[in-house]
Write a structure and sequence with these properties.
Strand content: 15-25%
Largest sheet: 6 strands, antiparallel
Number of helices: 5
Shape: rod-shaped
Radius of gyration: 58 Å
Structural class: alpha+beta
CATH topology of one domain: Alpha-D-Glucose-1,6-Bisphosphate, Chain A, domain 4
């Protein structure tokens, strides 16, 4: 008497990833460890576990539902095909896989009692966990490669410098040649040097003007120091003592004045 049972398991992958891996021959083989022949077309024949399981696709809903007919090499000719239905539902941990196995011969209970768990559910978990680790490693390598490319690009970037200038007035030695501009980023350009020189010149003019204002504002002090050219002989001579001759002349002038009167 055939019977039906239901099993569930959570697989660390998206429903679409589980759907595609189940119907892909290479992925199904790597996932279970046995050679498989699968297809994504309705009505196509399928096989798994090195031909131990055979069947066909009955219904396919991408990312949601897979229905296949299954029979093993242990089925008798009188046994009809069993029906395997996989329903895929997204959950936080990945995909909730609900398997309904119907029309199973009563004497084939080993599938329910650990066959699906050991042959499919556990290998699927290992397979998708490995894929996730490989994808994470590839992403890290890609980021590292991008960073190295960026650093190399920055290192190879050269600073654009102005073309060397030549003098318009040739000399005996030929036209003047400008010095080769420095290629380092830190060296300043001619414009920046001229700006610095102009600023320094303006600063000196301002300080000089400030000193001149300060000097004009201060009162001039009379110098008490003697000139180095001044000598003792330059002093005013003292008045000479009056002599007798000068006294007599004065007396005569007085007498003349009186006589006229």
């Amino acid at each position: 008497m055939p019977y039906t049972y239901t099993l569930t398991s959570v697989v660390p992958a998206t429903p679409q990833q589980v759907y595609e891996a189940w119907l892909d021959s290479v992925a199904h083989s790597e996932m279970t460890g046995g050679e498989a022949e699968m297809s994504g077309e309705i009505g196509a024949e399928v096989s798994a576990w090195d031909g131990y399981i055979t069947g066909s696709n009955l219904e396919l809903v991408p990312g949601e539902r897979i229905v296949q007919s299954w029979r093993t090499s242990e089925f008798d000719d009188e046994h009809q095909d069993s029906i395997v239905t996989l329903m895929l539902e997204p959950v936080e941990e990945g995909t909730l896989l609900t398997l309904v196995h119907s029309n199973v011969p009563d004497e084939h209970r080993s599938y329910e009692e650990g066959g699906w768990e050991s042959r499919y559910f556990e290998p699927m978990k290992v397979y998708f966990a490995r894929l996730e680790q490989e994808e994470a490693g590839e992403a890290e390598e890609a980021e590292g490669a991008d960073e190295s490319d960026e650093s190399e690009a920055i290192g190879e970037t050269e600073v654009e410098s102005p073309a060397p200038l030549q003098s318009k007035f040739p000399t005996e030695r030929g036209p003047l040649k400008a010095r080769a501009p420095a290629s380092r980023v830190g060296n300043s350009s001619p414009k920046s040097k001229n700006k610095k020189r102009g600023a320094a010149k303006a600063k000196r003019k301002a300080s000089k003007a400030t000193r001149n204002k300060t000097t004009r504002a201060l009162p001039k002090k009379k110098s008490k120091a003697k000139s180095r050219y001044q000598t003792k002989s330059s002093k005013k001579p003292k008045s000479r003592p009056k002599t007798k001759s000068r006294t007599k002349s004065k007396a005569k002038s007085k007498a003349r004045g009186r006589s006229r009167r």
